[in-house]
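Example 3.2
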Amino acid sequence: MSRRSFVLAPLIGMLILLSFPLGVHLPLVQNVQATTTNFTLYANFFGWNSSEVSGPNPTITVTQGDTISFRFFEDPADTIYYPHLFLLDIDNTTTTNDCPSTGPDKCSTVISPTQSPTIAPFTVSFASGTYKYYCTYHSPSYMTGKFIVMASTAPDFTIAANPTAIGPLNPRASGASTITVAPTNGFSGTVTLSASPSSGLNASILPRSIPSGSGMATLSVNSTREGSYSVTVTGTGSPGSHSTTVTVTVVMPDFKITLSPSSLTVAPGSSGTVMVNLTSLSGFSGTVSLTSTLSSPGPQITFSPPSVTLSSSGSVSSTLTLSAASSGGYSTPVPQGNYSVNVTGTSGTLVHSATIALTVGSSSGAGALPTSAIIGVGVASAVAVVAAGVYVLRRRSRPKT
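Structure, written as tokens:
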């Protein structure tokens, strides 16, 4: 045997021995790019896998699209057993335990000498970048490691919607969103599109396939019922499936009524005007009739015109006149004071109202006398006239001396 062979043989033997797992432990965490991988972590107060060759809290590296799972054991080298709980912090909210509530984070149940939980296989579908994994009991001082997600280099495609929210629509109209499919990493296959709407929503998509992994389609939606809906558009190609969700809001056609101004002061014997503005909402069209009610009798109210016709997405106005002039055969004056005028617009089953604050007062700053005072002055004047007449008659009836 040559000297060179004598030296190389022991070295090759050592490399073979080192290639086998140490002890009875399961394979340790490695930086891998495999499609399906199971990671094993040993929980130890001084760090995950702290008694292993890899050292404490090893960095875990995966690639988008990988399917991974976890197995957890209490580290036999940990002389004092503590309970542990693993959390992979996908949404980067530090050590907040999002499990078992809804959320992207992946969590285990309690790890102890008698409990060796697992996390079921899941696909790495979140963004590339650096994340962290913790023991929620002992991080960040000891049990915190890095979880690195590498961007996928496999041919694939993306799918996106614009807009992602449609509406509000009325039941007589439809809405649309543009679905865009784009290739990544040289993908050039055909993507088949499908739409899955929630109950009560109608949805269709055209075209239903995108050749060469690049193109656009139109998602059309409508519903005859008021409500909030969603539709999921899924693209399926040779790499797999990707989805995007569009929300849809459907409301009944309606109208709005506003007053300008919303308060008015008129002097006794005069009048003022207010504009009644009506606006179509959600495609409403039709005739709206206008009426009014007063908090107490007095002022006269007229509309010009008393009904208006709204077109879809349009607006129209009517002039409301409020008069404080005397009325009736005896010209009864309108009592001064504050009134509330309720203006109502009605179209079929749709009814909406707005209120005017009306003040009837003097056009001068001093204000006018109240009605009771006017009546009192009139009575006093009449008594004075009668008294004067009686006096004159008595003087004429006296005998001359």
